[in-house]
Amino acid sequence: SEMCIRDSLYTFPAAILVAYNFYQNQSNLLKLNEQKKQAELDALKNQLNPHFIFNTLNNLYALALKKSDQTPLVIEKLSNILDYILYRCNDKFVSLKNEITLIENYIDLEKVRYGKRMHVCFTYKVDNNFTIAPLLLLTLLENACKHSTSEELNRSTINIQLNTKNDEIYFGIENSKPSHLK
């Protein structure tokens, strides 16, 4: 009986120490996962293709030289995109409506850039209460624009559909591609 008491005196603190270590490890793992998610979000924000910005500025320069009526539109759209990416999408989740505005601004700039060579059809029907991780849809759109505007294509087409139903978001995007990839 004395042996049992002595063993329990050692066992109880050891169990507490094991439980504490487990809690600390779980807490550290959660912090690491949160830091990883934040790093992924930051990388996504920084992923806005630098070529897109460079090309837009070049287009803006060309429009300004021509004294084009589209110059103010390009400045406004680019300004809105940069403002949103740099200052207004710092939360883990943002309004789906704001992401739609971002997509529309991006599409408008790509249409100025490619003119009649690019046709984009963007349809959506969404509930105003939906939120989404920022810039996810833009990344997919950038990819579709990049792959559909090959020099081999006389005219590229991009079809985008976005709908919400119940607690789900449906996003579909199709783009034309050069014949050697079909």
Protein described:
With about 180 residues, this protein is α+β, with helices and mostly antiparallel strands. It is about 60% helix and about 15% strand. A hairpin with a 2-residue loop joins strand 4 and strand 5.
Topology overview:
Blueprint: H1 2-46, H2 50-65, H3 71-88, E1 94-95, H4 96-114, E2 118-125, E3 131-132, H5 136-148, E4 156-165, E5 168-175
Parallel strand pairs: 2-4
Antiparallel strand pairs: 1-3, 4-5
Helix pairs in contact: 2-3, 3-4, 4-5
Attribute tags:
two-stranded antiparallel sheet; about 15% strand; 5 strands; about 180 residues; three-stranded mixed β-sheet; alpha+beta; 5 helices
Cα shape: elongated
Secondary-structure content class: alpha+beta
User: If you average the pLDDT, what whole number results?
Assistant: 82
Q: What Rg, in angstroms, do the CA atoms define?
A: 26 Å
Number of strands: 5
Order of helices and strands: HHHEHEEHEE
What amount of the residues lies in strands? 15-25%
Q: Sketch the major β-sheet.
A: 3 strands, mixed
Helix count, DSSP H or I runs of 4 or more residues: 5
Distance between the termini: 81 Å
Contiguous low-pLDDT stretches (5 residues minimum) are none
Helix content: 55-70%
Task: Strand order, main sheet: write it out.
Answer: 2-4-5
